[in-house]
Amino acid sequence: MVKISDIELGAFPLLLAPMEDVSDPPFRALCKEQGCDMMYTEFISVEGLIRDAEKSVQKLDIYDEERPIGIQIFGAELDSMRRAAEIVEAAQPEVLDINFGCPVKKVVCKMAGAGILQDIPKMVELTDAIVKSTNLPVTVKTRLGWDDNTKYIEEVAERLQDVGIKALSIHGRTRKQMYKGEADWTLIGNIKNNPRIHIPIFGNGDIDSPQKAKEYRERYGVDGIMIGRASIGYPWIFREIKHYFATGEILPPPTIDERVAAAKQHLRHSVDWKGAKLGVLEMRRHYTNYFRSLPGIKAFRQQLVTEGSPELLMEILDQIQEHYADMAMTV
């Protein structure tokens, strides 16, 4: 049984990675239904939180059916991080997660996210301060290092554990790599096999199939896997991996009925949570993946990413379902 502090996550948990403008409540609900064991919110700016910025505060929204869930924050100033930790604790998640891995320039240039990989002592100092300032279990998500010459993650893992974090998720790339090239899990495996390490170690990066999940679980011995980009528009990745672990069988892809039902649920919840305009806009990134590989989908997809009315979008989704049902296709 893998546990973060006293939170039981099962024998080999699958986690949803925190992704900006993706891992919001509407999407998290779908992932939970498909077997995700633990999820994280989109990353939240501590400066936005302490200034009561609407977008940052809204990201604190969590729902009972999502639990266990972690709220993830990012920042670089000690006082702001402490104050934000108090706000997060009041929102009552199971876990407070610190983002030390985001490679985006606007975050990194403030020495937040992966930017702090250039200053490991400060990274440890901030983590220590957060651990001491909250009653929540604190976890960290980070990368191997800033670049190929500074892959200090093995030392970092020990130091973060020593100041009290309860789990560590590691993306197998450096900041310089961004999301390019292949994720290297070798150092992640080294950390898991370090006899000094006793907290759960979760691997992240490039897991996009049940076969790969099983291979990496066995090769690197991690306690669980965090899935990010492969889940966008495809929450079924969680059920497919779990089924493969349990039976060795590959599930057939979701049917057209399942795909349309998921897209409709996502759209409906997105509009309810964000309002019609933003809810419709932020759904557009998901449609390509919901209907991935369907022959002739391009014309429908063009309508989905240009139409602004939720009601008309629902009609387009009905047309997609009818069109492919009429073709008697199994997709």
What's the gist of this structure?
This protein is of the alpha/beta class and 331 residues long.
Descriptive overview:
With 331 residues, this protein is of the alpha/beta class. It has two domains: 3-247, TIM Barrel (Alpha-Beta Barrel), CATH 3.20.20.70; 256-326, Non-ribosomal Peptide Synthetase Peptidyl Carrier Protein, Chain A, CATH 1.10.1200.80. Helices cover 45% and strands 13% of the residues. The chain is built from 14 helices and eleven strands. The chain has helices at 25-33, 46-50, 54-58, 78-91, 105-108, 120-133, 153-162, 186-192, 210-220, 237-247, 256-274, 276-290, 298-304, 310-326; strands spanning 3-4, 7-8, 14-16, 38-40, 44-45, 69-74, 95-100, 138-143, 167-171, 201-204, 224-227. The strands form two sheets. The protein has an eight-stranded parallel beta barrel with strand order 3-4-6-7-8-9-10-11, surrounded by five helices. It has a two-stranded antiparallel ribbon with strand order 1-2. α1 packs antiparallel against α11 (256-274), α9 (210-220) crosses α10 and α11 packs antiparallel against α14 (310-326). It starts with a strand and ends in a 5-residue tail after the last helix.
